[in-house]
Amino acid sequence: MEKAVKKKKKHRPYIWFMLPGLIFYCAFMIVPLIANFFLSFASWNGVGEISFVGLDNFTKLFMNPENASTYWNAFGNNIKFILCEYFIVVPIQVGTAYLLYSKIRWHKFFQAMFFLPYVLSTAVIAFFATIFFNASFGIVNKVLIALGVPRTAVPGWLADSNMAFPILVGLAIWSSAVIGMLIILSSMKGVSHETIEASMIDGAGRFKQFLYVILPDIGPGMTNVLVLDIIWGITLFDLPYMLAGTFGGADGTLDFVNMYFYRTAFGSGSASSLNIDLGYAATIGTVTFVFILIFTSLMNFALGKIKVWNE
Fold this sequence. Notes:
Membrane topology: Multi-pass membrane protein
Number of strands: 2
Family: Belongs to the binding-protein-dependent transport system permease family.
Pfam families: BPD_transp_1
Transmembrane segments: 14-39, 79-101, 113-133, 163-185, 210-234, 278-303
Distance between the termini: 41 Å
CATH architecture of the domain at 55-119 and 175-310: Orthogonal Bundle
Main location: membrane
CATH class of the domain at 55-119 and 175-310: Mainly Alpha
């Protein structure tokens, strides 16, 4: 009994250290999440009375053809972005992390250079992208015209529905891939040197070491990267908003769920389109949160199965 009391007293200081962070998390994460859930069953313009409408907002989202088309187009763009993250960005992150882990020549310099784009704000990245890829005055088109390409044949880049999305993915890779790369690199550095040395004694080359020793051991780090990619892909807003405007371009090529949420919650930016409905916007947020939970749960389940099979 005395040992239990002493143990409880011993851990009590740690609770006090955790308390400020816990209060902050509850105040700015849990409480708004609960409030958003209840608001999704109401109608409110932000200043008047909050009126309960039941499932009307959900009906408005999924049964209204125009709203459903806008939401599923935006959600489809989010899914495409996540798939690009998984099949393009993650392999680049893993490959880059392994090169730095192998301590290639000037690896410290390259690590610093990879981190450089991350310190730039999204506004700066979007500004430079506009300077380079603007159809009228962009540097790329000016170079193409100077090389003899007819002015009528130069690409529209950000104004072209076939090119805008690849440009967005390229900018995302350049600006944010370093975080996942650093997570994977730190996981690689945690791999046991004894295991690697044993594989070298067995005659395993670098490729086999990577495939059969390093890759299975960095599972937790890879899981974190994949979960972060889902969250980032679903919550994407600032970069496409700055590149294509409130509606994600003329045909919605760069329209994402959070941009639709923003238009609904705060208006589209024009005086004629200030149809603010925070209840309907909260519904979009609630549905998106449910999708995030489903995707992350399925991914964790799949990764858990893969881990069991590997064992």
